[in-house]
Amino acid sequence: MVRKICVVITARPSYPRVRSVLKAIQASSALELQLVVAASALLERYGNTERTIVDEGFTIDRRVYMVVEGENLVTSAKSTGIGLSELATVFDDLGPDIVITIADRFETMATAIASSYLNIPLAHIQGGEVTGSIDEKVRHAITKLADLHFVASTKAYERVIALGENEERVFVTGCPSIDIVQQALAESYSPTAIFDQYTGVGSRFQLSEGYIVVVQHPVTTEYFESRRHIEETLHAVKEVGAPTLWFWPNVDAGSDGTSAGIRSFRENHDLKHIHFFKNMSPEDFIRILDGSECIVGNSSVGIRECAYLGVPAVNIGNRQLGRDRGSNVRDVGYSREDISDAIRLCREQGRCAKDLLYGGGGAGNRITEILASTPLTVEKRLPY
Amino acid sequence: MVRKICVVITARPSYPRVRSVLKAIQASSALELQLVVAASALLERYGNTERTIVDEGFTIDRRVYMVVEGENLVTSAKSTGIGLSELATVFDDLGPDIVITIADRFETMATAIASSYLNIPLAHIQGGEVTGSIDEKVRHAITKLADLHFVASTKAYERVIALGENEERVFVTGCPSIDIVQQALAESYSPTAIFDQYTGVGSRFQLSEGYIVVVQHPVTTEYFESRRHIEETLHAVKEVGAPTLWFWPNVDAGSDGTSAGIRSFRENHDLKHIHFFKNMSPEDFIRILDGSECIVGNSSVGIRECAYLGVPAVNIGNRQLGRDRGSNVRDVGYSREDISDAIRLCREQGRCAKDLLYGGGGAGNRITEILASTPLTVEKRLPY
Amino acid sequence: MVRKICVVITARPSYPRVRSVLKAIQASSALELQLVVAASALLERYGNTERTIVDEGFTIDRRVYMVVEGENLVTSAKSTGIGLSELATVFDDLGPDIVITIADRFETMATAIASSYLNIPLAHIQGGEVTGSIDEKVRHAITKLADLHFVASTKAYERVIALGENEERVFVTGCPSIDIVQQALAESYSPTAIFDQYTGVGSRFQLSEGYIVVVQHPVTTEYFESRRHIEETLHAVKEVGAPTLWFWPNVDAGSDGTSAGIRSFRENHDLKHIHFFKNMSPEDFIRILDGSECIVGNSSVGIRECAYLGVPAVNIGNRQLGRDRGSNVRDVGYSREDISDAIRLCREQGRCAKDLLYGGGGAGNRITEILASTPLTVEKRLPY
Amino acid sequence: MVRKICVVITARPSYPRVRSVLKAIQASSALELQLVVAASALLERYGNTERTIVDEGFTIDRRVYMVVEGENLVTSAKSTGIGLSELATVFDDLGPDIVITIADRFETMATAIASSYLNIPLAHIQGGEVTGSIDEKVRHAITKLADLHFVASTKAYERVIALGENEERVFVTGCPSIDIVQQALAESYSPTAIFDQYTGVGSRFQLSEGYIVVVQHPVTTEYFESRRHIEETLHAVKEVGAPTLWFWPNVDAGSDGTSAGIRSFRENHDLKHIHFFKNMSPEDFIRILDGSECIVGNSSVGIRECAYLGVPAVNIGNRQLGRDRGSNVRDVGYSREDISDAIRLCREQGRCAKDLLYGGGGAGNRITEILASTPLTVEKRLPY
Q1: Which domain CATH number covers A11?
Q2: What is the 3-state secondary structure (H, E, C) of C186-248?
Q3: What's this model's pTM, rounded to 2 decimal places?
Q4: Is residue B332 a part of any domain in this protein?
């Protein structure tokens, strides 16, 4: 009997972490894909992930609007509550055999609870990692709700086991985002086309002459400082003066400060060497990364994809604190001087060695095989 | 500065597990109590815990209606979502320094998420235990969201530490429900008064001549069987024929089956020896237990309070599966013969020895001292 | 092109008011039926209307759990809010051409707002009547949100026009509940079979020797008095002593008082001549009514169906205040003496003349023809 | 006994329509003000009305986050549902004697239902007007839920009476927004200071040399056209070339199209003569209006305040269709040529005569006197 696999995508950064899985489920005769797009993945101002998903050939079964505006801690909680209430109805209606949730954003708790309360086996992609902040709590709480774990590395595997999960239900598959890296690098492309394709705002420049990439998200537990944080980075990048591709942050408590900081800085400074994007296909983003001198900010991309690519990363602040990292990462605090120094060092040092810390590709197929054949269970109990 | 401690009570069985803490907070000059009563604790048909709380001298700061009717798995999830959305507003408004959540019922996840997403330190009473069913997932997920853990036993302590919690934030306090047992036994009382005080339905009888107590809740992952389960117990208790005090179950997915089973059985059988209650003060309930020949059903009271009391317990089915238990417990399946045999054996064998497995009293004061002095933190990270 | 007609049923009494419309839509090749069952229509303890609907051959497209427990004014509002939020998703998903809402219960506002905010033409069955209480506000507010009005009588027509609606969008179709009366009376049936079919509680008796019917709902604006009200009726019916079929009330603010009153009275009095039912098919209920000496309580059935049947009605209190009524109705206050006197007078006087005040049948077909052919509009503007 | 008056403000344009009432309640010893700020009035990107309210000396009792992001018809309905659910709790908690709701935005239905379902008398400011679109339905539905009506004009009075309201509960008070106009004109001010005070984006210019004002909101029932509409206006204003102060639209289904249209146009055209503002104090806005050559767009300000001021208004499209208007209004369709022609005619013709169509000031005091002395009723019934 064909198993129905329901994947819930709630934000732009989750999509590349599951896309190769979606493709493999689509291609499998043993599985039927049910795709739910929710939260900021539906919103224009966070990059319209919904459109990307449709453009790439997937059919969306349900859309769940759940983001309560305000972008503070209260609305994060309220959004999760509304999402939970809605997803319960959606799962009841679609009747999946397995629900898949991705990573550790606050609103993914809605998926995890709805699925586990409905006694539907929950599969979690990307458990067992360590960061800090509210993501840390969310990630491990989801591990305790999940019945099936697809982890990126052996370190993550060991942590999920230590958390009391049954070793027959934890699989080291590598991270699906590495599948996209592999695939993206296999195709030819013309970097300069991105300005036409993704528009954005700011001046355009020759990518062949070297550039850096910036992706900086607000950090939820430091709400009032998000504006100060982003301004330090803006000053540092302005000071370095290198051609820069800057990617807009996700919705999160605090992102008002981040967005406001960027907007205000743009109006008051001459930032001719920076081009701002709201969205990009995962492949193009990877190729842009692969062509860059370094990535700056606090995105997990610097830790994860860039380990595989060997691209130096200036990692700012504590958002990725504790996350397993390769030698490509240079950690700095929220100081414009430290940030600009680190950027300069990265540019001088050049490309690092590849590190298979987060897998070496093939995760999508591996996960799909397990989804098709693993026993469906929802009962578990601490072994200690 | 006085710390504001917000306690959220969502169901009848949670109240005795926190009452001595409430009393101790009230008596402390270093703490201010904020009391939120929510979910089935507000509802007449689950025993009107709200009234009990008010009668016992506590002031309720907020009431949160959140139970979506239907008593199935979908409404469990929806209720939790609505509760989460409401509690976020409540916590934002009350501004507590610490939020306390109790045990592992499905809707307590709303308290845990609202508190942790608002960066308010979350204290969890009764983590680290093992049961099974959805409670098991909920309990350990809450441990991963909580910042402060008040556990009942050293076994529970070891499990919470194994789950990666910092040993400076985990405290073996014993279970506050044992405080009530201690206190209840210290006071004199007249057992027969309970019929007048709590009414209930069914005939009355002399408690001095021996009686058994029944408390049986539906088991969420076996929704369609809850009616069959309760009927087996009803048949067994009818067959034994001993005077019986039967306590109505809580709201839960499946309780429709349980309630319907009881109602229908009552209408079709002569149950002169059974008296049904919907609610009772924790102290009177303890004294009733202490005076009983045995407790029958699947309530944690049989495992926990009765260990301390030394009252034999016939524990039916897998609701308490995995939970640490003393020698007073006799486990049986859902078969009327097994249940009636076990009841007979318990009555013959008589009282067991006291077992301090879940503490020996004083938990309320111990917890309150820690609440007043412990550092307030919300950051944590897996140590492995 | 086939028009999709989405009917939302939220409570037991709404079903007979639309059933002949559902049948006619099903039979029409120009229309496709989308059936949403919501609120108390899904709940066992309000008679499980869902099962009746399925048993009668309809397919339910969506189920919307939305009743927040508590049965007070706050939960009425919250339930409506949750229903609105859910129905918005449902309508967006089903994409109906017309949504149908029935009558004036508080939660029907959720249907009306979701439909009108989504720019889907809203058809309202049973506008233009006059009662009082919150129903009065709800009914006329829905008229102002609706685009198409199917009214029962010329008086109702005149009121809807006076409210500023366009006379091309208001249709006197008669009430569909009269279709059921017509049809029910056309079939033969054996009255005594109802005890086996619908069980209920209480003793059984020979219906051929005469009996009365009681249906009494709580009145929302007099919350604290609902228990007193029901007790007056219980005393009156006990005193009259006639064989009685008593039907359980709907969910509503205050019904806790009503239900509690009935339960407590049953336990403390000998009510051998009363049999309590929770539910009955509309046809059987009509035939039971048609065979009765009179109906007692505050249901609109006494005013509406009984006008057509010519069955005397003792109408208690102000729930039906203002509603157009025929000569079969005898209004009384909440006094056991007045109620028992009125019952005696009705029984002595015997059957009344038929009154076509609410139509004479055929409403289902008439409404369906209009649904298939009327222009679809959502714009309107006060004409004065 | 002091009456508690709870005012709910959900959006920027509602605030000036109630501000003089808030001031008068604050000053009254017979009344206590309870202020709830909700929906887009809490959001930075819709002008942060919350901050304005606090800055002007009011204390906010509750904040209700309720806007679900997406800015489409579905999220309008969902936001209203969430607001209703939240406001029920707020009203239950605050226990007001009267709730005040303003005008006809979609989310005000949440206030109206929560209040009426809790049996709290609802006062409606600005009923009885005629527009079209969903506002029309909302406005008259709220009239049918409201118990007390404060209308702006005798025409509005006649319509509310025609809708079946009791003439003892309808009061012609004039619109409170005219109070602000009166007061604003009584104070001296320096127009050029607005650029420093409200920042905004775009170039600055000498207001003394003449300028026009633009305020254009999306029209909900024409969702897909909102982008095209705004572009026509942008082209017209660009073509006219006059110095322009442009005010950002409110949250509403369709505003994504409007906002996106403005942003994109700004990036692709040279708009040196246009300055964009997100917010302004009501007084400054009035004085800016009073100093302008004309107002362009579809705001009710052009119809209402500008009637009193005698400022010509180019009213675009059907958003104000049906609304009573003075001779200052010139209606045009969505064509850049028509719009630019009308702007030119307005500028040539110059100032119009004052028209007291919406009152002549003093509404705040008049409303407050009635709030303090009127009987509190929630029962009503159609008189026809």
Answers
A1: 3.40.50.2000
A2: HCCCCCCHHHHHHCCEECCCCHHHCCEEEECCCCHHHHHHHHHHHHHHHHHHHHHCCCEEEEC
A3: 0.87
A4: yes
